[in-house]
Amino acid sequence: MYSKFLNDFKELYMAYIPLMIILSSCLGSVAAMLILMQERSTLQVIELSACVFVSMFFNASILAQLKPKFVFNSLLVSLGVNTLLCIVNALF
Hints:
Keywords: Membrane, Transmembrane, Transmembrane helix. The protein is built from 4 helices and no strands. By secondary structure, it is an all-alpha fold. Helix 2 (about 15-35) runs antiparallel to helix 3, helix 2 packs parallel to helix 4 and helix 3 packs antiparallel against helix 4.
C-alpha cells in the first residue's frame, strides 16, 4: 500500500506540492490553535514547538528540493504529529 502511494506521489510530484503545503500548513495551524487554547504551561510550549518544527521541516524539505521519498515521509510525519496534537488537545 505504501509503495503504491509512493509511486503515485513520485509520478505527480510537481502537482502535489501545492496541495501538500496547504494540507500540512492548515493542519499545523489548527493544531497550534488548539494548543494555544489550553492553559499556559511548559507542556504547551513543548507541544507548540513540536507542531511548528514538524510543519516547518516539511516545508523546508520541499523548498530544498529533496528526494520525493524523503518529502513523502516528512509529509506523513508532519500529518501524524499534528493530527496527534489536535486529538490530544481537543480531548483535554
